[in-house]
Amino acid sequence: MNTQVPGSPADGLATVPPHVPAELVFPIDMYALDGVEDGYHEAWKAIQDSRVPSLVWTPHNGGHWIATKASLIKEIYSDFARFSSEIILLPKEAGEKYTIVPAQMDPPDHTPYRKIMEKALTLSRIRDFAPEIRLIAVELIDVFVDRGYCNFSNEFAQVFPVRVFMALAGLPLEDVPRLLEITSQITRPSGNTPEEMGISLDSAIRSLHNYVDPIIRERRGQEGDDLITVMVNSEVDGKQLDDDNARGLTSLLLLGGLDTVVNFLNFMMLYLARNPEKASYFAADATNIRRGTEELLRRFPILAESRKIVSDMEYSGVSFKQGDLILAPTALHNFDEELNSNPLELDLHRKRVSHITFGAGHHRCVGMNLARIELGIMLEEWFRRIPKFQIKDGKQPRFQSGFVASARNVWLEWR
User: Fold this and answer.
1) Which one of 26, 164, 258, 321 has the lowest number of neighbouring Cβ atoms within 10 Å?
2) Cis peptide upstream of residue 27 (ω within 30 degrees of 0)
3) Of 311, 287, 305, 393, nearest to 356 (Cα)?
């Protein structure tokens, strides 16, 4: 990999700052990873395997640092005193538009809003909803099981977690296409420059706010156990949650519920279709699904958040300046061989599974219990009906990297 990339406004790359050594400059574009057409996770692993330093700087997307080692990545997610969540999405021009409470907040300001989301997504509430989750999974699979093939991306992955979430939130299914388009523009904003990406994301955020505002007004003062009603009628410091923060919490809930699990399922099932011996393990015994859940989560991380450097400091042998941005891809944490040996292998007998697929620290995903239950139920019902499957002939999946990576066009077939 070429490390000498000067960067200039003329070529669309950021100019390398004086405090960044030339040997730490690597042209890594998080939205267009080299080799991503052959696999998102494989593309990040190839960067790690090229023996890049533990901290590198890229002139792409406005210029930012990237942490490549597990220990640094976990610390960056956890240490809000040095690495602020003020800007969690790159480039900076887009991240500054990502004003969704409490995603861009640090403790102690972040804490009361986190508690509201935890109250809405309690484990007991999700467990009570598990029978409904199972009914949705069964209904969807039974549509295509006798056909012998399906477009898994469109017919299941993009429908199952979305229907579950919309039911939990008390929202109509006819709104799904509109919401999916909005959330995709937030997690993978379009544009050829940081400025254009900022415009795309700002427009998407405004569209999301326009969607949730009338819902918030409708549910204020109402009784109900759906996620949105619970949140918008909560209190912070003895006062009712104001409109701006209610808008932010509801928007964040939609963003997490409508994009992340969808893409995880696509990556997972694509791998199992290509590795039938792994699928056979799950098909053999339902208890194997529970045993293998954490390894599945470790193998298919899709989040790559950034953090903002709070003040000038020396860190791991590198000089950081206040305001520098640093990307911490969860894939590079989970695939660090010092943490997990042979990390691209789905090792269903791995003794110690270590991952931060749900993030780490005070912003660890509040929906992780829902995701785990969805995953377990989906696999149980799938393997009960379709124990053996493969990639449909002539169909090639498509991958896209970004804040949340995506896999699309996953077609499966079976006898």
Assistant:
1) 321
2) no
3) 305
